[in-house]
Amino acid sequence: MSDYLVDIPEQFYSDGDGKPFETCVVCGRNLMEDGTRYVIEKAMKNYEGYDFSATVFEYAMCLDCYQEMQKGMSEESMQNLQQYQMRLVQEKSADGVIAIDLSDFSLSDWLSKCFFKDKPVSEMKEYQLIGQFEGNHMIMNMPPMAIGEEVMEEMSELLSEQTKGEMDRFRRDFLGPSPEIEELIYGRKLIFL
After folding, report:
1. Which residue(s) pair with 58 in the sheet?
2. Phi and psi torsions of 31, nearest 5°
3. Do residues 69 and 76 touch, judged by C-beta distance below 8 A?
């Protein structure tokens, strides 16, 4: 089965310059080269009383670096997260498969609620957007997701200390201030999905 590709939607553009991400945050690889697969993750914060959200952090990472980062997660954490995600998908679908009808698919509608719990992101304080891409396209065979704050908290509880340390290192090295300052300001731990 070949990939179904669409142009990168603006929701996954960099807030820094309003354009698609061009380089991997870890290795600097050119993401716009044909055949280069990568992940984009954006953490969003809503402001109570306003119809407004702001990006807390964002990054694009080539699939090679992403898979290398996942190797830093403990086996226990990986198993816990996979079991948790499988359980949530099975709760949504009897056969454990989520199908998308691309003939009338609306990305805005799709990303307007938590993929796992269906709660509207507009009712949350924080949520994350994640998608997979190739060159200047989004891969729809692996649809993008909005992950709500409840799911992020539940996933965080499943992580080993080794994994939390690896995520703190990634955040410190590639996303900004120390985890203590980030947590004080934003109160959110990073989770690789």
Report:
1. 42
2. -80, -15
3. no
Count the domains in the chain: 1
Residue 166 domain-assigned (yes or no)? yes
For the stretch 12-42, pLDDT in tens is 999 989 999 999 999 999 999 989 999 999 9
Tell me whether residue 191 is in a domain.
Answer: no
* Domain extent at residue 73: 5-186
Dist. CA 143–CA 167, nearest whole Å = 24
pLDDT in tens, 51-107: 778 888 899 999 999 998 888 888 888 898 889 888 888 877 666 566 677 777 888
| Residue 27 tokens, joined | 């290795």
Q: How far is Cα 142 from Cα 169, in angstroms, rounded to an integer?
A: 27
Which regions of 63-144 does DSSP assign to beta strands (E)? Answer: 126-134, 137-139
Q: Output the six-digit token pair for 66.
A: 């992403």
Report yes or no on 16 lying in a domain: yes
Please indicate, yes or no, if residue 168 is contained in any of the structural domains.
Answer: yes
Helix 75-92 to helix 149-157 angle, to the nearest 10 degrees? 140
